[in-house]
Structure formats: structure tokens, C-alpha cells
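Record pair follows.
FIRST:
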Amino acid sequence: MAVREKVINLIIPSGETEALLTTALEIGFVLGAELHTNHIDVDNFAEYGIYDDSGVAFSKPTHVNHWKRREGSGFDDSYKPLLFDTESKTFQFKARTKTAVTKDTYFHLILMYKINPESCS
């Protein structure tokens, strides 16, 4: 198995409250994720979630700080653990805020997962 990264970029445009992306992931096992954002308005609650192809919250929407990489841990333990097989499903990634953002706000999610090398050819 090879470890790969998949980057999911979402931008909430200025004046809006939500961004989403629906996409399929390569077949593999998702170990975890880390999120980077320029959202700094502590009074405007921001959350991030992942939904499966039936619209059910696969990784329940939680505050963006819950998705940040943890310091002082080993490589594997520093990511938010997700631990699921992609199984050729389609997933929806959603970022939203309580009120409209005052500037374009990005959410840059990095998924770390294992892929069977035979599926890479």
C-alpha cells in the first residue's frame, strides 16, 4: 500500500455562508485529514463536514479547529482520524459559517489515505 494525499479546496465567497464540493475519491482507505483556513472571525462559527453519497453526515460537521493538525504527536496521530474505505463512493465536502463572511474564505482539506498500488497504474 502507498500513502497518498488528496486535496479538497473550498471557498466561501464574500457575502455567502456555505461552500460545497461533491466528488469521488480514489479507491483506498482514508487514514485522516487536516484542514487549513484563513477564517479567523471567532464570533462567526465555522464548521466543516463530510457527507456520503446518500447525504448522511459521514464525518459530522464540527468546528474547523477540530480538523486542524495536532502538534506534538506522531505523523499518523497528528491528523484528525477518519478511518474509512472510499469504496468508489461519491462524497460531499461542506464548509459553512453562521453568518456571511466578509472576505473570500478558503478551506483547504488534506486527506491522507492508503491506496493499493495496483489501482495506481
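SECOND:
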Amino acid sequence: MGAQLRVYKQKIASAQTTKKITKAMELIAASRIQKAMARVRASSPFATAVTRAVSAVATYSDVDHPLTVERENIRRSAVVIFTSDRGLAGAFNSQILREGLELAELLRQQGKEPVFYLVGRKAVGYFQFRRMAAVAEWTGDTDTPHFHTAEEIAASLLDGYTRGSEDGGVDEIHLVYNRFVSMMTQSPEQVRLLPLEVVEADDSAPSQVYPLYEFEPDAEVVLDALLPVYIQSRVFNALLQSSAAKHAATQKAMKSASDNADKLITDYTRLRNNARQAEITQQIAEIVGGADALGSGK
């Protein structure tokens, strides 16, 4: 019985230690998420404005720019998957990897060859473990993304898109990342980055009328200047969205782990008390039995 008590005490101590760790990680994630959300709110209007500007040039001009015109025969499609460098975030990484692989399978069914660009150690580890090839990898900058990472990713994507499938590049680009919706919800998002499709409308102002545009010096030069900025801003916004979603997922997972640790502590405490009570009862019974034996022997 004493051995059983020691086991319960060890399990209670282990659960209490785990709770301290998960509670600390929950507080760290909560402190980081506010900054991440502020960065998302700051970058989203600029990314939307640049997208609208590029779309406007493509829509209201007669220039057939190679980055805005869909190619007749799309052979290869780039799939950029944004994960995190660290785990302990629930289904954050698994759901975005599943979303990216489902998109790749859909592209294969359409007769396109998907090629992968990976962001985050979790995506890199997943592909390496399954011996799946990737064109490029970026790690170490997912918790608090920096703009130079977005510039590197954008440069690699733009280079592949410019070369085209005939020269080992790609004919279209898709981004797959977790979008921050709320503290409890992180939604997988698929965005076709290039080629552009339509001007993005503002849902808050459905009756707004967009004017006709004039471009100086001409639309092609404007597109050449805007498109690198457009790709960088969209990639950076995806990095920030993924970072904020990861911190929210970590906070939610660590809170769940702390609650489970509390439940384990309660359960093991009850079992320890029952074992202790049974041990005391047994000791009393042994004392009473011994006293009876001594009394009957006189």
C-alpha cells in the first residue's frame, strides 16, 4: 500500500511540474499575440492597397504583362506552405500541411505538377521525413517574421515565375497559410498569388465606384515597379498572419494542457486519499486484531 501512495505522489508532482511549464508557455504566447495582431493589422491595409493597385493596372489597361496574363498551358504550380518553427500548437501545423497536400493533389488532377516552397521547420521536417522534394526552404523566422525573409521568398518566387516551366520555373503561384480569425479560430487559407485574376472589392463599401486610371509613364512600367512590391507585401502579410495564428494556437493548446493537468492532479489526489484511507483502515484493523489476540491469550 505504501508503494501505491508513492506512485500517486510522484504522478501528482509530475502533473504539477507540467502545469507550471504549460502555464508559463500560455502566458508567453498571450504576451506575444498582441504584438503579432498589431503587426497584422498594420500590414493588411498596405497589402490590400498594393493588390488593388496592381489589379487596377492590369484591369484598366491594354498591356499584356507576363505577370498578369494567365499562360495557355500551365504545367508547374508553386505551392508555398507556411508552418512554424516550433510545435506545441495543437493542430496548427498538421492542418496547414494537410491543406497544402490536398491542394497539390487537386493540381495533379488538373494535369499540373506541384512544386513546393517551404516556410518553417515543421514543414521542412515533414517533407524530409517522407523524402519529398522541395525547391526552397526558409526556417528560423516564423515567430516574429522580418521583412527581409519576405523579400527572399518573393525573389525566389518571382525568379521561378519569370523563368516559366520551360526553363525549370513555374507557371502559377499559390500561398497556403493559417489566417488569424480570432483567438479560438485559425483558418487555413489558399491564395493564388500569380497570375492576378480580378480587382479585389471592398465588402464594407459595395456601392463604391472605381474610376478609370491613367498611368505615367505607361502601364507596363508601372506593373514592373508594382509587382515585386505586391509579391513582397502579400508574402509578408501571410508570414504575419501565420505568426499570429500560431501564437493563438499555442495559447489555446497550452490552456487545454493546463486544464488537463488540473484534472489529473484532482484525480490522483482523490486516488491518493483513497489509498491513504485504505492504509489507515488496514493499520487500525491490524491493531485491533492484535489487541484481541493478546486479550484472548490471557
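COMMENT: The chain has one domain: 24-251.
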